[in-house]
Amino acid sequence: MLNFDRDRFLAIQSGALALAGPIHAAIGAALAGGAKNIFFLGTGGAAILMQPAALMLQRRSGFPAFMEIAAELVASGHHALGRDSIVVIPSLSGTTKESVATLDYCRERGATVIALVGHSDTPLGLKADHAFVNFAEDDTSSESFYLQSLLVALSVMAHRSEFPGYDGTVAELATLPQHLLAAKRAFEPEAERLAEAFRTEPYHIITAAGGSWAEAWYYGMCILEEMQWIRTRPVHAADFFHGTLELVEKGVSVIVFKGEDAYRPLTDRVEKFVRDFTDKVTVLDTARFAMPGVSAETRALVSPVVLATILERLSAHLEVKRNHPLTTRRYYKKVSY
Amino acid sequence: MLNFDRDRFLAIQSGALALAGPIHAAIGAALAGGAKNIFFLGTGGAAILMQPAALMLQRRSGFPAFMEIAAELVASGHHALGRDSIVVIPSLSGTTKESVATLDYCRERGATVIALVGHSDTPLGLKADHAFVNFAEDDTSSESFYLQSLLVALSVMAHRSEFPGYDGTVAELATLPQHLLAAKRAFEPEAERLAEAFRTEPYHIITAAGGSWAEAWYYGMCILEEMQWIRTRPVHAADFFHGTLELVEKGVSVIVFKGEDAYRPLTDRVEKFVRDFTDKVTVLDTARFAMPGVSAETRALVSPVVLATILERLSAHLEVKRNHPLTTRRYYKKVSY
Prior knowledge:
The structure is a homodimer.
Chain A: H1 6-17, H2 20-32, E1 37-40, H3 45-49, H4 51-60, E2 65-67, H5 70-76, E3 85-91, H6 97-108, E4 112-117, H7 123-127, E5 130-133, H8 141-159, H9 166-174, H10 176-198, E6 203-208, H11 213-228, E7 231-236, H12 237-240, E8 253-258, H13 264-277, E9 281-285, H14 296-321
Parallel strand pairs in A: 1-2, 1-3, 3-4, 4-5, 6-7, 6-8, 8-9
């Protein structure tokens, strides 16, 4: 595979999953200590990557879960945030300005802060009550944060007897790095072909639903916009028919991400529509990738992870075909703002 | 003012605010009947317009408030939805397919459904437990839905003694239609100038924060995309610096909506940045509009309403300058999907 380090990839994703035990212990301690709710408070892409886990908790668990825009929470406060709150803050660098401000704000209010970081010797790593460290870089952090936040959500539900299959699910997840690697390999030729097709494409509508919506939002904003300077319109499949559809005509690129959770029919509907009205439809469907031994329920949970891992292959080819390194920025870390 | 019916506008917004009493009574009855949570379940634009009210409840009230994508909730269920739930469903037509499915789903589970509709003799109007009817059309529905959902949220908090100034706020809101009319008048020349500047502009990044974020999302998707077929990138001011900023360069249009709530500093930061890197910056700031007798707290609550009302003027000029009627669609009500 192009510009890919197999061992590094496996180590990073296995590293994320090896946190299952420590995360389960930390959540258990917080719940035993009287925690009454949980906040997922990320910034930018890291926030988006926790969305599937937060959504699952909100919809399936009786434990109040809040997913807030961290900078807004710090600006206005939140009635439920306090001594009985668990706060999860992810930041690969461990230094993201807004995330450090969020940590300080939550600690002052007595919350138990769990930081998910790439380096321990950072403001977030040092000041959190529990810092879970898994080194990753831009090309491997999506899967890692999806998995770590999923482990947090599953642990909350398991401790509350809301997810009886916890042990089995964690065991299945432990096999995921190899399945992700196989998915990358299977997708590699298509990644190159797509990168060629997208080489001069100036604009993409990207849509998805359920857990996979996070990946549409993330890939549009944090990869295509930030790292390739390509215009995107991430739009939820449920919103698509209430405005954005009118932009679709011959020549307009629409990318549909399809996962395997209960929300898949929402993306079927978009796919059916756009195939009639534009010649540039790209469907990325996690169902194509065999993952022997992984149950349908777990496949649904990890659909955004599978999408992230195959899309990393697309990015790897895009930067070469477009002669635009993924690390090139106009502004980030170049000007202050 | 261009293509504007003053009396019709005032009647529609006053009609929304005249629902304060009936809404307060219905919420009071539901709470007295043991309601334990509230769901805001809209579809497309109508969902977005309830977001400021839902966010306020989530952050300021101890009453659990959920804002869910209706089509997803129907697909997967939600642990908290049941006999003790109040469900608010807005639909101007009263016939939106997904909204009718949502109503049926929630009624089957025993929830108390409040429908906000433009016509009583519609599926939503007829099947809801409480149907609040206020006729409006596309050019007047934004303010109307913002206000009705705000009245719902304020009522919940008032009944729970979480908003002691309820009566005063409702009295201030009753004066709002005249203030909105004055804001439209004051903005009219700028609306024409902006429409001329935007006439051939193919793409806008639109950003905002707090309650006003809803209007950035709504105006991009439901007006510029749906009614003018102009590409937009609605992006929250907090997300802006985590990807989308890299698209900004000379010639790229960035529109910043500034409201008066606690989240205004997030948009100050974007404004400061973009002024350095593109020559096409449009700032629409609600603080410019005098509203004598309206307190700072109420001004913060109605900032998205003020934005919606001045933006309607922009739309009125855009359709003329661009020779593209706001009612023209490629697909909506023309093909089935």
